[in-house]
Amino acid sequence: MGRRLKIAIVGPAHPYRGGIAAIMQSMAREFQSRGYDVEILTFTLQYPSLLFPGKSQTVDTPAPRDLRIRRRLSTVNPFSWCSVGRELRRMRPDIVLMKYWTPFMAPCFGKVARIARKNGHTKVLCQIDNVEPHEHHIIDKPCNRYFLRSVDGFIYMSEQVHRELEAYTSAPALFSPHPLFDNFGHRVERSEACRHLKLDAECRYSLFFGLIRDYKGLDTLLEAWSRFRREGHKLIVAGEFYTSRDKYVALIERLGLGDDVILHDFFVRDEDVKYYFSAADCVVLPYKTATQSGVTQICYNFCTPVIVTRVGGLQEIVPDGRVGYVCDPSVEGVADALERIYEGDTLERFAEAMKEERKRFTWQAMCDRIEELYDTTIERDAK
């Protein structure tokens, strides 16, 4: 393209854990590969401990040596918002790229964006996961208004998010599907995966993966599993509880699933993710509400067939009957999908089809769209 953009990414990155940090770092690497000047400004404090339901927000692994990451921003310290905003205003990056997934971030990100844009040069672009959060609070809408109206353009990953976004702003918005999570490595032999996880390789495994919140429908899956139960089949639940653990343990006991469910209720380290997706025949995402899910993109990375419910944008990412099944978000719907996915050679066909389907989900395509969005905002200002 004959240009060298200067890009400042604002949001989670090392030492913060989780999918959003991985996304920001993957985009930084892709832009760096294009010869662009890229820096990430991340948090000194992301969530106050009182508001964080997990055990730890950070990892103790070394910082990636190929990225420039500075810890500058506290979500609860307005002085840091102003300081980072002024720094960006002076730096004059072409793009400030943010990620938005919860209204809690709105005051911090909105202030930074408003100050940075005052230089008359910088465009604030946002890759947006959610507009309306899964767990609602009275301050959601005013927080959304404050942040969303400070942004020059958006990349959305599901039509539901686009519809919700249009209620707040008329800024340009382009679609790009969630790319693969390719930072978790490659599939390993099933026997190796079972050995690493201390699983019986003679059993068949379905997997529920990710942070456990009520909207993700683990209770629906457990009820469905009690109907599906088969000799030699087990359900792995792998993820940290961000809600009451006791009620799910009680449900497992009430349904008599103590021998069927393997509970790995902790945050799975990046280096261990490949073992879960290599050991599992399929992944089940029985969400009650959703926009999109990063877990589907981990499935594509490892070519592990997936069952999703017909909510939000999940069916936009998972072609029904090709790489998995899309079912009703009900006990009956999930149980039927489990029955069907284990019929005949279905799992093998779905896994093979994933090799082709996953070509749609690249970081190159996402960053191309971000550049296209940047050009759109420049052209819009020129009119």
Question: Can you give keywords for this protein?
Answer:
alpha/beta, 6-stranded parallel beta sheet, 14 helices, 13 strands
Topology:
Layout (H helix, E strand, L loop, with lengths): L5 E5 L8 H15 L3 E9 L23 E6 L3 H14 L3 E6 L5 H11 L6 E6 L11 H9 L4 E4 L2 H8 L6 E3 L14 H8 L6 E6 L8 H11 L4 E6 L6 H10 L6 E4 L8 H7 L2 E4 L8 H9 L3 E4 L4 H4 L6 E4 L3 H11 L4 H12 L5 H20 L1
Structure description:
- The mean pLDDT is 93.
- With 383 residues, this protein is of the alpha/beta class.
- The strands form 2 sheets. Strands 3-2-1-4-5-6-7 form a 7-stranded parallel sheet, with helices on both faces. It has a 6-stranded parallel sheet with strand order 10-9-8-11-12-13, sandwiched between helices.
- It is globular.
- It has 14 helices and 13 strands.
- The protein has helices at residues 19-33, 78-91, 106-116, 140-148, 159-166, 190-197, 218-228, 245-254, 273-279, 294-302, 314-317, 331-341, 346-357, 363-382, and strands spanning 6-10, 37-45, 69-74, 95-100, 123-128, 153-156, 173-175, 204-209, 233-238, 261-264, 282-285, 306-309, 324-327.
